[in-house]
Amino acid sequence: MIGVFSTILLVIATAVIGVFLLRQQGLSTLSRFQNNVDSGQLPARTLLEGVFLLIGGALLLTPGFFTDTIGFLCLLPPSRGLMVHFLIKRSIVQVSNAQNNYSSHPNAQGNGEGSVYEGEFIKKGDEKIEHK
């Protein structure tokens, strides 16, 4: 609808802008990662942001306006932050549900810190096994 020349120019322009944003945001994320590690904090959020940067960069290099839109959303800090927040919140809920399902085992007793299983055992001495 906009013509071949305009389409090619837009695809090249989004790739160039995307590479610039990817470089800028990648260096910023790497700096935050190093600061988190140096201060002894777990850089989980920063690592997820790095994953979204990789996805966004790949999508921007893929021709197409839809992939470019999703790629830019992955590269821009506000939208990337929302995606990371949603992913972290969703994964915490799934882990919490998985732990609840695990502790609902019929022989398990929840003590708030995990599951306790009741059972019996018999310790046998070091007997030699005789071959017949």
Q: How many domains, as an integer? A: 1
**Main β-sheet, in a few words?**
2 strands, antiparallel
Low-confidence parts lasting 5 or more residues at pLDDT below 50? Answer: none
> Which range does the strand content fall in?
under 5%
The overall average pLDDT, rounded, is 78
Helix fraction bin = 55-70%
Tell me, briefly, the overall form: elongated
Structure description:
This protein has helices at 4-38, 44-61, 65-75, 77-103; strands spanning 108-110, 115-117. The chain has one domain. Strands 1-2 form a two-stranded antiparallel ribbon. Helix content is 69%, strand content 5%. The model has no long low-confidence stretch (mean pLDDT 78). It contains four helices and two strands; from the N terminus they run ααααββ. By secondary structure, the protein is mostly helical. A hairpin with a 4-residue loop joins strand 1 and strand 2.
Structure described in brief:
The chain is mainly alpha-helical and 132 residues long.
Search tags:
132 residues; mainly alpha; 2 strands; 69% helix; elongated
Topology of this protein?
Elements: H1 4-38, H2 44-61, H3 65-75, H4 77-103, E1 108-110, E2 115-117
Antiparallel strand pairs: 1-2
